[in-house]
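Lab intake sheet, docking and co-folding queue.

SAMPLE TYPE: protein with bound small molecule
LIGAND NAME: adenosine-5'-triphosphate
LIGAND FORMAT: SMILES
REQUESTED OUTPUT: full 3D complex as structure tokens
PRIORITY: normal
SUBMITTED BY: R.K., bench team

The fields below were copied directly from the construct record.
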Amino acid sequence: MIEVRAISKSFGDNKVLTDISMTIEDGEVVGIIGPSGSGKSTLLRSINFLEPPDTGDILINGELAYRDAARRELSKSNIALTRSRVGMVFQHFYLFPHMTVLENVCSGPRFVSKVAKTEYEERANALLDRVGLAEKRHQYPEQLSGGQQQRVAIARSLAMEPAAMLFDEPTSALDPELVGEVLSVMRKLVDDGMTMAIVTHEMGFVRQVADRVIFMDEGRIVEEGTPDEIFNNPQHERTRAFLSAILSHTERTEPAPEPHPTEVISSLPIVLP
Ligand SMILES: Nc1ncnc2c1ncn2[C@@H]1O[C@H](COP(=O)(O)OP(=O)(O)OP(=O)(O)O)[C@@H](O)[C@H]1O
Ligand SMILES: [Mg+2]
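RESULT FIELD (auto-filled):
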């Protein structure tokens, strides 16, 4: 579905991605974890051309969607086409404040000339129903909670009928009690077979839904494997150190007698309502 071949990206002297290759198969859910600054967001943004990589290729559905900036400039229509096939949801929801919930969800399809208004509105209403917000459709974003706004952002992304969805820490700006409702919407997408890449610190969720987990550090993929392999039997010291740091943070309030980090991960609660 998505194939990334040897992409690298620098900002000035700062090499943020080094020779990253990865694939996301049709229907696969890939969790991407790693310390702050390791390049997770830049990787997702590269796939969506918000940050075109300096070198490397990206294929979507077997078609070359992007090739080395040095070798070929992307046309705007090519970028637009790829963006419409790959939806992206961010930590900050970026809803349009002057549009109602329904208008937000229709904001993409409105510009797809072939689709009639009645058709995309009907689809938008169905999507709002699916994320549990049908009754909010005539309200404005500021009238909604953070969790509700993020669910609208997910519906807005789905309205373009993307073949895959990229999530960049979709719950980290939310109050803890609102995290579950967003994860629950994402869980539904997983159950529907959506192809997804998820960057998150919700290790319990990754453990439960991911087919594969990628651990990144300093702009490289350090290791990847099934959730069981990564969480219960990490091969690299850096992975172990990261997991153990995350866990000591999560478990800070517990006066536990220093269990092995991987045990704590397996016992983390899965935040689902
Ligand atoms: N637009 C930009 N201009 C310059 N530097 C950038 C830009 N975006 C990211 N960086 C740098 O690239 C590096 C990787 O950033 P990135 O946001 O991809 O990390 P991350 O893994 O998503 O971190 P976090 O967990 O904090 O979100 C960081 O050193 C960051 O400062
Ligand atoms: Mg990030």
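REVIEWER NOTE: The CA atoms of residues 204 and 268 lie 6 Å apart.
SIGN-OFF: pending second check by T.M.
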